Amino acid sequence: MDYFEDKVALVTGASRGVGFATARELVLRGAKVVITARGEERLEDSRRKLVDMGGEVVSRTGDVGIWDDAASMVSAATEDFGRLDILVNNAGVSMRGDFQELSPEVCSQVLATNLTGSINVTRAAVEHIIESKGNIAFISSIAGLFGMPGASIYSAGKGGLTGLSESLRLELADAGVHVGVAYLGFTEHDPEKRILAADGELVPPDRPAHHPQALAAKLILNMIEKRKRRIVMTPAGKAGWIAYRISPWMVERLILWAKSSRIGIYRRFS
Ligand SMILES: NC(=O)c1ccc[n+]([C@@H]2O[C@H](COP(=O)([O-])OP(=O)(O)OC[C@H]3O[C@@H](n4cnc5c(N)ncnc54)[C@H](OP(=O)(O)O)[C@@H]3O)[C@@H](O)[C@H]2O)c1
User: Fold this and answer.
1) Which of 10, 11, 12, 15, when mutated, tests ligand 1's pocket best, judged by the most ligand atoms within 8 Å of its CB?
2) What does R_g of the chain's alpha carbons equal in angstroms?
3) Does residue 244 have an active-site annotation?
């Protein structure tokens, strides 16, 4: 029997992108899925696509940064499906801009979604996940393994997920709960995707996509099924992470050299 068959999963930020690809993969593997996002129309569209594939899927709108919304997302799983086995904390927003140019609103919005949002939904879900001895997955970035220039608050939020997951893993070890972090590399994006510029304007991503969303989804499901503590998505990301553990100085020099030479290597990491 497939690991995901008849399991109940909640995927935040699943109206598009990596979240939708993950929900799709879960449906294909037999899970019942709750999908969430703020925008109602796109979320309903995505729910219909998953139902058309034969999935048992419900949707709940809300902002992960707001506690009541996070609690309501978890209630959707327990009320409609009676349990919750798998939480994928995927909702996130990206940003670009040097730290001294960032508006205070951008700083708080990035942290409210990427860090507080994951904390809120996990806190609301944790008793149910303990009951099912299930899985909690956090979707991070290579920029969460080491800091990236022009992405300070994004790196701070994604790096914060590492600390959160490490504490949770220890606290929940006796309860049989799996906690894993997926450090994704730059992945293809939907045309509607927007990132925050330094002044708070929503702008299209400024980097070319490298990896298919379906690959990210498969790696996330593999991390959950094999109960791995982490996956690092790309060969460049893996090499960067190993090199950073051996010599942070060397990786910092390499990033600064790539930035000053205006070559695209450092762009592949976020
Ligand atoms: N794509 C990449 O290259 C890449 C690389 C590394 C890591 N990641 C991480 O992977 C995750 C998904 O990225 P993506 O590229 O698929 O993003 P995306 O296309 O922008 O999708 C983000 C999803 O999250 C929802 N969302 C955003 N803010 C939210 C909030 N405050 N509350 C609830 N839902 C919210 C969005 O819908 P609404 O706007 O309607 O709420 C959407 O469904 C993120 O955590 C991101 O940081 C992505």
Assistant:
1) 15
2) 18
3) no
Ligand 1: centre distance to CA 91 (Å): 5
Instruction: Supply the residue whose CA is at minimum distance from atom 14 of ligand 1.
Output: 17
φ/ψ of 222, rounded to 5, equals -65, -40
- Chain-wide mean pLDDT for the chain? 95
- Tell which one of 12, 15, 18 to mutate to probe ligand 1, the residue whose CB is within 8 A of the most ligand atoms: 18
Give the integer Cα–Cα distance in Å for 143 and 152. 9
Ligand 1 centroid to Cα of residue 14, in Å, is: 8
Residue 101 Cα to ligand 1 midpoint, Å, equals 23
**What mean pLDDT comes out for the span 23-31?**
98
Whole-prediction pTM value? 0.96
| Ramachandran angles phi, psi of 5, nearest 5° | -55, 125
CATH code linked to domain 8-234? 3.40.50.720
264 pLDDT band (50/70/90 cuts)?
low
Coil vs helix vs strand at 204: coil
Neighbour order of strands in the sheet with 86-89: 57-61, 32-37, 8-11, 86-89, 135-141, 178-184, 230-232
206 or 223, greater pLDDT: 223
Residues 93-118 pLDDT 10s? 999 999 999 999 999 999 999 999 99
Contacts of 112 (CB under 8 A, 6+ apart): 65
